[in-house]
């Protein structure tokens, strides 16, 4: 157990870098359809932010040979929390290294999860300052909602595939001070865990990789804040040729509204409506879903998450790639 | 073609009678979950109306050995339209008979579709008059929205299964003056048609019965008017043990929002959110969907209508009955 | 009373022409914010259509010295209906004249309402044919929903101010075959009437002009089909500097969801969410709202329609123009 | 400034006790309209909870001579946090006293705000355990959503009126470790502050009492989680005779969706749709709204908060009581 006073060490998911073999398609997806602002372009990378993302970028799109997550970075709740988390990671032999020089962020501590995902922790950020024409009259809004596509507000969470869920979950609990709010077990095997150190249902989730691979990404989620916008987004994706994997519907696990699509580079992206269940109880007991309850867990409505993709496809992809993703 | 001046002969679907082998379950479904008012109980039948249904009842639930539609009745747009429609039916050898004495309605002309569904036409109705405590401050509302369950406003439309779609469609066009707004073809075979004689996308639809049966019901639809209520309904059905077949999502055909469930007697019921596309053009050309377009036609979002039930299950049921219906 | 067989003579509102002293602002409003497509530009006029408008244009924006409606045109339900309506107008001494040559429409019969509004009737239209890149996969949709702003689907209805409501209402009933679904009376004076000849609550409404002027426009309404989009639109208008007069809320009269704003030229525009109450009963009795019921009639939620503008401001404007309109 | 490690000391608002001179009306409001479950009845008090409230009750309704808040209790994030907060309160001369014996809660520390509101802190709670028939299939849900009225999920936040905002705000910051996310200033005077120690925009707000009174309640808010439900609630309140003060609309301050009504006892109740802006940045800078920005701050849509009630009416009421409250 994390010591009582170290329960809120991770503030939120700050940024993710995705690789894409189809950068034009991927950028069209995030900029033209999801209305993200471009804040910088350098080399093979473009930096993007949603209109309520508070920093210079929440998504970096980099050209690469295959779709995958390069890394994801969590912001700690204080500089001291960052120091404590690094000390804990080191005690756990999850050693890492400092990096620096990324646009819009200060020094960043990089480490690998037990399954091999590249993660990072950081405190230092450069707050985004909107130029006058992009300033919103809504003072908590970092910039005006753009008039392009169906704009997402901000990045929301990360969902990782892992060969084994439990070691990743335990390292996030022990070293990052996260709490597992919900989990799924299939007999003796833990097949999913949803974690945060705030009252969000999750900043990070881990699910069992049915292909048995290591270190893959299931999805990155972006936030609308309004469930209707996931319905609007489905209509947009349908007409503009983006394959819809599942949704819009609402998960029983986390009670959040979802829509899953594949961006043109091949990464799975979730559009997240409202935040679902907010974990206000400080001593909320982890809910454990068993296989006989899993229908409600996966969807409250009639959605069947498609077995041929949802539980097996991740990035980097493993052959054969399902047709729907290539569409 | 119907003559120009006889284009609006059918005003709307007025009422449906369903049989159920589980009357307690079926009444709990319509009264406790869908908030319908009971207006009369007689013999093995209970008469129900939604809070915006204008007449004494829109749904009659009758105990019977198997789930099925007993009959459905359309109201004409005038007494003269009723006479004209009957004359046309007789010319087409779709002869029928007058009946009378049903609670809340006057004389009614009963006939069979070419596939054997029992249909009726009527003009005479008894308008529902709410007692003072049920009168709504909203003057177009026939009664207050009740505080029970998630109340439907009114009946909306009927969807019939037929061994062959075309003859049924053609008789509705020729004799009832309906217009087919959208249809589906699979090669040479017409597999679905959506018809009305108003600007609604459909009062009646006909779909091909994949089991090759005659005269069965696919579903009766009730209207919420708000898409969110189909989402709310899905959550209610999930927690109260009503099997959800598909949705909530939006059809491409008709652009309407849908949720399909099986009431405890076994009849499929659709909860209909907003009305979708309103056919304002008086010379709207029938849209024909082909199999390569059918994914968008069936759902704009990610729903896959389940082949094991959606295209094969109707009432009266044919063995084997899918497990989901029995649940 | 209109004869029974002539009840559906007017199909819908096809087009409106607005004058604006600020054409750049007005076009930015309709194109950049409301996502209307431009289909032609000629002289001082620009022709626009929503993505589900079926013809070449539903809105013509013309530069002029003051904000006003130039004219509005209703499409009849058949060519014969057009002839009948003209004959009736002539019998009623509401004579008019044929015009021709307007882009996208054929010959058009122009006449004045008893209060002096310029109206027109027409049958001949040129259907809009989307080029391949604008074709929607949703076959009932005339073109793809654009990725610009918060796109309206189509034009919806017209609301006219009149020195006296009753003569205008009666001429629409008698000569156009419209039916008044709801009306408001203040003692002996009829102050509002909502009419259509379809099951829409209204294609045209008339309200008493509290300034006593003749022939003015209260508002033109554009249709979203989804109530949430009126909420989204309010947020957009707020941040992009468009003055909001009232809403989003829902009227008791018509049960429709509304948002009223002033476009930069000064005309009041309504954004219309869902269609509200659909008048399915063919013998629906006109509902009459009295002053003691008017709070519910004007808004079901907490909106107070602002007396300083809503009941007095119309276009062309009469001095003094309220500050909110000029903002 | 609160020390870094003591930033999350208050978990959430656990419960409020309201007095009402009209207990039958007040209970009808909360039970029949808002679908709250009754968990106990004792003496002049009834204990209620929303279906997602995790403890035995979140609202206690007590008969009393006038509408007012008896007290409100915040739950700390740990037993140690409770000790630390009490120590801090004592250092600040905001001494209080332990009480015990309240149904469903353990020992509770009661104290007064500098303005005289009775507040309490507690850690010990009895978790609500649903009997089998009320258990939800959604595991994070403490009980099934009932079929009565339009059920609220849970209590959300508290809004206090104070003669002077600043001393109350500062005591909450200093002694409870809360952070002020947004505030309003009118020249030199602070007129409102929204605070929490989580990522919610606020657990408690304080607004200036325009009547200059001390220790009054502005409103208690209950949470729907879905903005549409505030619209549905407005319709319900309208037809069932509950006076609507303002909304549904969205505040610029906090970006939350709101609806304000007066329960039959006279207390103002807010129905809260989605949570609005979630304060993910751990170093979020307080936003300060000035009077020239206040229109957007109070409502993003067209709502004008009514000056004759919103800024002057609180409970206990001061004569003259506005007519709308008595309605």
Automatic annotation (TrEMBL), chains A, B, C, D:
<dbReference type="InterPro" id="IPR029068">
    <property type="entry name" value="Glyas_Bleomycin-R_OHBP_Dase"/>
</dbReference>
<dbReference type="Pfam" id="PF00903">
    <property type="entry name" value="Glyoxalase"/>
</dbReference>
<dbReference type="InterPro" id="IPR037523">
    <property type="entry name" value="VOC_core"/>
</dbReference>
<dbReference type="InterPro" id="IPR004360">
    <property type="entry name" value="Glyas_Fos-R_dOase_dom"/>
</dbReference>
<protein>
    <submittedName>
        <fullName>VOC family protein</fullName>
    </submittedName>
</protein>
<feature type="domain" description="VOC">
    <location>
        <begin position="154"/>
        <end position="274"/>
    </location>
</feature>
<feature type="domain" description="VOC">
    <location>
        <begin position="12"/>
        <end position="124"/>
    </location>
</feature>
<dbReference type="InterPro" id="IPR050383">
    <property type="entry name" value="GlyoxalaseI/FosfomycinResist"/>
</dbReference>
